[in-house]
Amino acid sequence: xxxxxxxxxxxxxxxxxxxxxxxxxxxxxxxxxxxxxxxxxxxxxxxxxxxxxxxxxxxxxxxxxxxxxxxxxxxxxxxxxxxxxxxxxxxxxxxxxxxxxxxxxxxxxxxxxxxxxxxxxxxxxxxxxxxxxxxxxxxxxxxxxxxxxxxxxxxxxxxxxxxxxxxxxxxxxxxxxxxxxxxxxxxxxxxxxxxxxxxxxxxxxxxxxxxxxxxxxxxxxxxxxxxxxxxxxxxxxxxxxxxxxxxxxxxxxxxxxxxxxxxxxxxxxxxxxxxxxxxxxxxxxxxxxxxxxxxxxxxxxxxxxxxxxxxxxxxxxxxxxxxxxxxxxxxxxx
Length: 334
Known about the structure:
The chain has about 325 residues and is α+β, with helices and mostly antiparallel strands. It has 3 domains: about 30-125, no CATH class; about 130-230, Beta Complex (RNA Polymerase Alpha Subunit, Chain A, domain 2); about 235-330, RNA Polymerase Alpha Subunit, Chain A, domain 2 (Beta Complex), CATH 2.170.120. About 20% of the residues lie in helices and about 45% in strands. It has 7 helices and 22 strands. It has helices at about 5-30, 70-80, 100-105, 110, 165-175, 250, 275-285, and strands spanning about 30-45, 50-55, 60-65, 80-85, 95-100, 115-120, 125-145, 150-155, 160-165, 180, 195-205, 215-220, 220-230, 235-240, 245, 255-260, 270-275, 290-295, 305-310, 310, 320, 325-330. Strands 2, 5, 7, 8, 9, 10, 11, 12 and 13 form a 9-stranded mixed sheet that branches. The longest helix is centred in the N-terminal third of the chain and has 26 residues, at about 5-30. The radius of gyration is 42 Å and the shape is rod-shaped. The termini are far apart.
């Protein structure tokens, strides 16, 4: 049976349309044009013991590609930087190195797979400094603001950080430490005094001179701290405080001053009150407390006398008890 003429005409139209579309697609694929786009190029060295510090990363790429590919190429360059694998070595005195781009970018699959033919680059090289990465052991100190602490332990006592060689040298030279900052803890201001506290995951504060971008890795970012908060002020009882006779040498050469009992020490205890850190130093004998018997010229009268002891106390330290009385005898020498 013969085909109906209308059916034959329809088949012919479909075939012609398909051929036209194929010819158009072929022509578009063969239609090659040029374009210039700006891309961010990042040098990536897979060596974990090196750090690459680029001085520039913007590159204008003039390329040739099928017109149908241009939109796809623009989309790829807009999605993020182009990572360019390189193998570099540290330069002398940390001087910048020039990395040639043309051959590397031309053969980079992420670009060549898009059918790009690179015509020119501006700039043709990227400059970068390459440094080895050093490992530094950094000690940890505990920061508590103006709160006095005792019996402080930190775990771990040091941490290892990896950073560029120049930064490591600077840290070793200046002797910076990391700070475990207790003031950031919840309820810090209301913690009870004179009892041990254990706090885990206390954050570490890095020195201001150390940029966070320079730290490639750290063995820890928090530590455990055990501590006791001392009272801001505390009292201390002292016994056997020595007595010092403070008088003109001319008078001491004419008169004998004898403390009753024969010992040049107070026969009464005294109680001091002051900042915990200073009181602690007094208790450890790092700061010496002495009772002064101050005698003026008209005090040198033979006989028995009494006088209130005087004290040169450290700043903010006060005498809680009344000044002890010193009994003494003055005798004129023959």
